[in-house]
User: What shape does this take?
Amino acid sequence: MEAKNKKISINVISSGLQVIVIGIVYFFLYKYLLATLKIEVLGVWSVVLATTSLANLANFGISTSVIRYVALYAVDFQKEKMKQLVFTSVVFLASLFIIFALCLYPFAELILKYVVHKNQIDTALMLVPYSLICLVINAITGVYASVLDGLQKNYLRSIIYTISALILLGGTLLFTPYIGLRGVALSQVIQSLFSLVFCFVIVVKQIGYNPFSWNWSNSIFKEIFSYGMKFQVLSITAMFYDPITKLLLAKFGGLAFTGYYEMASRLISQVKGVVVSANQSLIPVLIEKGKESWTVWFDFYKKTFHFVYMFTLFFMTSLILISNIASLLWIGHIEPIFNAAVFLLALATFINLLTSPAYFSNLADGRMNILMISQLSIGAVNLLFGVIFGFFWGGVGVIIAWLTAILVGAVIILKNYQLKRDVKWSELIYKTNIIKFTIISSLVLIVKYLVSENFGTTVSFSFQSVLILIYTTFFVILFFKNYLPSFIINRIKLKKSVW
Assistant: This one.
């Protein structure tokens, strides 16, 4: 048990370090691109990536299926089936994404001309081939990375992705002065190839996988396809998420607004990534806990929910607190669009991440229907409200529509899951500091905005720095008081007894 807990801790810590390093990398990357290129050009890059990512609809949830079945095969020591699973998944996804890329390329201009200004069409079309190449490579890499997740080797994936981010930054600094935005696209291809090669090499070493030996399995394909077919609906609704949001932003807010949104989204996603990654690494553990008693399962779920709630609220609130400072350092001035995007996206991300323990528990148990209902609801609300709110309130309205959609999806998942598992909110927050910390976080944000509106920049920044320090102190006290008494307080007591 202690070894398993240690492995989980290593995975969570490595995910945290990955987020920190990648966050720093993207900070310097966007700051450099803003200084070198125009914000409209950055918006074009964002729109092209979002448009080509629509091909992810073809994934059929195979990567997630790989995580689940690798975990199941690992428990039963079925290494041969694991090899067949990897080979079958890679062949299927590689073939599928190559076909989709070839089909999408001829229609790129037709799609982009509706969302990109005619002056930027040539730039957008120049980026499309690079984006499609990355799409195919990343689809294959996703299989190998999922194997590492299923084996609870997330820390290896974190190391690879962290180094790949540094490669992206280095390549951008090297190529952009000579070939402009094409240099960023080329660096992304190199980044993707690096991740593919190293994930592949580690999987070969871990399970003795031989990619050159035909190892297709019809039975395994049926298993992952059956499980993944339900993910097909989830994949289809992905078009109503980031890609459609950015397309609506470009339509109703303009490319500059989309560029600032991209920067805010990137800032938020770094923190979101660590929580999602940490919960994803728990899928094999959740499979085991689901077979034990309700009390054992609930204790694990409650600790996970408490961890997610406290950490997510702390980091989202902290990002809102530093949004002015981030805007000044990153963009060169305090940008209201960037700050508004950070606030709304932080709130949406907080709500979304509260569902992650229930979401991944449903994945582990194979309960896909409620996830499909939630995803479809999010997609429908995002599209419908995005058009309506965007028409009346521009880019801000589009982001508010996204927030509304996330809230609807979260209510559906949490209400259903806790009803099925017979969990009451009062039991979930009992003997935790969730309510106290929520009140403190709200008060801190109110104080931050009052100071920002009534004092100068220098005074505001100085006060915000002090406020962040005070807020962090409260978080440490309230979180660790609940979360770590079992092995910190006991050790303190042991030392006292020795003395």
